[in-house]
Design goal:
about 200 residues; two-stranded antiparallel ribbon
């Protein structure tokens, strides 16, 4: 539990194996690589104690841990883990369906989303009015296993609000591009006025 709390800390301590990166251990790693290359064997299956028998203070853990991570593996997998969080190499904005939500508008960004968004807004207003009616209604009996009606309305309002926010976030790059075009046009007009 303590290790997981440490992984979620915004400024975690360095990993415990950072103390292994001493100049002596790095020299041992270079010596081991050279001897593996001379012997013509594969680095992963080598016994470091046999090859470094003439060296002092060979650590009990594998020296291969000191090697830098291979970037090509990260690029193949498309993500990497740092301090318990997964980071993707290519930054993409996940859709609502990718995040496990119920997407009510078309996933294709080139499709016209206005009819779907208008129906979501209409459904949101209708559900809100039903919610106010359900809140005014008398509560269910104390030991009833049936959830109250307002609970269903709140869940549906949450789904609708998530769809509206996700659709608005999908339009942010378009909005930013439009704002940039307007700023550039204003700068051109100012320069024309100055000359």
């Amino acid at each position: 539990m303590e290790e997981e709390a440490e992984l979620r800390n915004p400024f975690p301590s360095p990993p415990s194996h950072y103390a292994n990166y001493t100049s002596h251990n790095l020299k041992l790693l270079e010596t081991l690589k050279q001897r593996v290359q001379d012997a013509g064997v594969e680095f992963s299956g080598v016994n470091q104690y046999e090859l470094l028998v003439d060296q002092s203070d060979v650590p009990p853990w594998p020296l291969a841990q000191l090697e830098k991570p291979r970037v090509d593996w990260i690029l193949e997998e498309g993500y990497y883990n740092v301090f318990g969080d997964t980071w993707f190499v290519k930054e993409t904005i996940p859709s609502l369906a990718d995040l496990g939500g119920h997407q009510l508008y078309p996933p294709d960004p080139s499709a016209d989303r206005r009819p779907a968004l208008l129906s979501i807004l209409h459904s949101l207003l209708v559900t809100y009015s039903k919610l106010t009616g359900a809140i005014i209604a008398p509560p269910p009996p104390p030991f009833s296993e049936v959830p109250p009606e307002w609970h269903r309305h709140v869940e549906w309002i949450t789904v609708l609000a998530q769809n509206l926010m996700a659709a608005a976030n999908d339009l942010r790059p378009v909005q930013a591009r439009g704002n940039l075009e307007l700023m550039m046009q204003r700068q051109l007009e100012l320069r024309r006025e100055e000359t």
